[in-house]
C-alpha cells in the first residue's frame, strides 16, 4: 500500500486518524499548515508534491468553513495524479446534497471533484461530531438564555469511531461512496442543550427559537440525519461525562 498521507492530520479528526493508522502499523505522513516536515497550505499547494510522492493512499480530512476547500481539493487531486497515488479517502457530511448551507454545498462540490478525478476514491459521509455540538451550545450559552433552533434534532457521532472507520477504509481499496455513519441517537436540540447544561454546571433557560429560510426547513426535515445508519455507539451523554466529569457546580 505504501505510505498513507493524512491532510489536516493535526485537526480534530485527522489526529485520531493518524493515531489509528500508526497503531495499525502504517507509515503516516501528516500534512497541515504547521506540521513539519510537510507544512503545506493546500490552498496554494506549495510543497504538496513532496508530501504525496511515494504515497499509496491519501486520507483527506483538511477542511475549513471559512472557504478554500475546492481550491485545496484541486491542488491535492492534481498532486495525487502526478505522484501516482492509487486511493484518496474523503470525509464528507450527511446531508450535503439536501441542506442548502454554504459549507455543505462546498463539501458536495469537493465530492464531485473527487468522483471525477483519475484517482481511485472512497467517500464517507458522517453526522456531526459531539464536540461541534458542544461548541455550538457553548456559544449560545453566553447569552442569559440558551436559544436553540425549534423543531431541529441532531445525531452526533463519536469522532474516534469516525477515525477508526476512515483508517479501515484507507487500509482497503477504493470503494466509491460507502454507507453513511451516524451517531446512535437522534435527539432534539432542546434535549442536547439540557444535557450540556447539566454536565457543564451552567444554569440557563432553554428557549426554542423558530427560524426561517430553506436551510432551517431542511434541518427541520432531518436532511442532515441518517437514522437508518445509526451505527455509532458512543452517546452524547458519554461524551459529556468524559469532557466535564460527573458534572460541574451550577453557575
UniProtKB/TrEMBL annotation:
* Transmembrane parts of this sequence: none
Domain NAD(P)-binding as annotated: residue spans: 8-131
Please state what the protein is called. Nucleoside-diphosphate sugar epimerase
Q: Which Pfam families does this one have?
A: NAD_binding_10
Instruction: Give GO MF terms, alphabetically.
Output: protein-containing complex binding
Question: Which InterPro entries would you find in this protein's record?
Answer: ComplexI_NDUFA9_subunit, NAD(P)-bd_dom, NAD(P)-bd_dom_sf, SDR_fam
Which PANTHER family does this UniProt record tie to the protein? Answer: NADH DEHYDROGENASE [UBIQUINONE] 1 ALPHA SUBCOMPLEX SUBUNIT 9, MITOCHONDRIAL, NADH-UBIQUINONE OXIDOREDUCTASE 39 KDA SUBUNIT-RELATED
